[in-house]
Amino acid sequence: MKKSRGRTGRKRQRKHLQSCMAGVNCSHKLEYIKLKKWLKDRGFQDLNLRPAEFLDTGRGLMTTRALQVSRDLIISLPEKCLLTTATVLSSCLGEYILKWKPPVSPLVALCTFLIAEKHAGEDSLWKPYLDVLPKTYTCCVCLEQDVVSLLPEPLRKKAQEQKAMVQELYMSSKAFFSSLQPLFAENTGNIFNYSALEWAWCTVNTRTIYMKQSQRECFSLEPDVYALAPYLDLLNHSPNVQVKAAFNEQTRSYEIQTNSQCKKYEEVFICYGPHDNQRLLLEYGFVAMDNPHSSVYVSSDILLKYFPPLDKQRNAKLSILKDHDFLENLTFGWDGPSWRLLIALRVLCLGADDFTCWRRTLLGDVISASNEQQAWNITAKICQFLIEETQHGLLQISQLKRSKENLRKQLALVEALCLEELKILQKSAEIL
Description:
Low-confidence stretches: 1-20
Mean pLDDT: 88
Strand content: 5-15%
Oligomer: single chain
Structural class: mainly alpha
CATH superfamily of the domain at 83-228: set domain protein methyltransferase, domain 1
């Protein structure tokens, strides 16, 4: 009796695990039915992909057949389905873009189109696509200041730069937006406001595929490389898969082939690139668990915290590190301190007698046992400092989650990032 109950329990557990991995099919939802019909009218043939909700990743695409490693074609999206600057120029916005001086950027053109089409509502030809786009985003530009202040360095600085850049984009585009007034009954200031631009910018930044367009005189000199790809952009990122993605000139379609296996009814992933979690949160608004590319950054301020300010060669050492680009991208990873971090610390630990050997140190040579020992000791101290700082940050997040209900979603993302960084630092501490 016990045996058979155990087998049943295991079977139930297996089924539960499979259902978690499989996700819940969402093909029956009206917005997806309308999107599929809209795409079919533009020549899209569905290759066994279904929209679904997954436990870990939220909305994504599942496959109804097993995908093999032999360059299986995941999706082929015809050119007619893609939203590019050519789409924008062929719309009513085209004549306004053509005569505007100085020329707008391809990015502003796409953002303007998205805002205008969203405002058009039922009258928009792109409504089936717009209806499945996220209403809000969680990339750093959208985070509240209370949340940004809890981000680890250098992400906090990059988040502030990103916010400033989007605000500058809005301010510099206001005159162009005003020129579009003849197209609208309502005041353009109400339609093309900051929150509308932020939403459109996030849509382009998080969802476009790279597709180089020929340079047009009506646009500024920034590269025209953006294409929005309805349905295809439901595919989520995994750092552990390999795909080949490109526009096929023969079929006039954007195609994605997989080099990774995927079982029937499992989520199909693509890879956005070998990005660490700070980059993923900054640009895409999510964090990947157990990301092999993740690392914890050591700022130059932290680096200098452990060196005597009275070191006579201190300024010379800093100049050497700066000139040879050894003050940026100093990290701890899953395999411990990076080579760059150790080189920087060895240079800073050079004694007066060893200082002339700095060139050899930059090449990775071990100058002396004492220099090596000192560098490793300071590495361990920095690692411990970052562990304590991350733990303190997690405590602050926990407290804020209780007091600010409206920020829970944003705080959960920063918490996930900090927990991942804590794991990396603890692994590094073990190695050290």
